[in-house]
Amino acid sequence: MTISVYVPAALSLLLAAISRIVVGRIAPTRAVVFVVAAMLCAAAATWGLVLLAATLLGDTTLVADEALERGVQLQDPVPQLIGVTAVALLISGAVRVVRVLRARRATTRELRAVCSSCGTGELAVVALAAPHAFAVPGRPGRILVTRGLLSVLDGDERRVVLAHERAHLESRHHWLRAAAEVCAAVNPVLIPVREAVAFLVERSADEHAAAVTGSRELVARALTKVALAGGPDGELRAWPALPFAGCGVSARVAALQSDPPRPEPLVPSSVLALGVATAIAAVQATIAFYQLVYWLWPT
Fold this sequence. Notes:
299 residues
């Protein structure tokens, strides 16, 4: 087994390390680049674990007897401890993915039920004192706001919230968040990437709201007022539903108070290149694994 089987894990660490730096230099609408890179890293790292776990098959009686019959000298490509560790990581990753998917499904169902209880139409208003606004995905998607939020905002600021949440629904940001959540569950090293994606989709919705209302200052003011008036999040579990004031509020307000972001084409290309590199390493590791076990196939 070549060193390439370990490269995806190393590149995942690198992607996680640069995500905090890159997130401030990439256009908010390019969150999909982070998601694609994370998916490639998660898939390649998982496949690397599968290959490492597969080396344990060399210790089975079936493979040992086959090798003896064919006169093949078995090699021990990796220590047994690494193979066992790979199996444990694969199992724990599968458990985390199931938990994430179940939690997202349960919370989305809960919020849709709340929306249904508020009648029909795009906007659903629920009688809660805490100021919250969520984009609830579905067919059709709906915007769920609390009376507490409506009470702290004026008419123009309410338009900001609606434009922000519509941007989430129209851009299908919930799919980007879900993909990033699953990638981080598969490979916890990618947790900073998950947070970067969450921040970027909020920044993208902020910029859309600023374009719709024509005022970046108005968006910053609405965001600040909701954040300052916010209560505990326990009344509604909001993370799958893209809450208005749910991620990096201070940084988002600071971004809105500065000039609109300028696109830097080299930055997303570099992020994507990391993901492609992990895929190439996974292919090389697969070839090396095949060369290790090709004798198992009858000629």
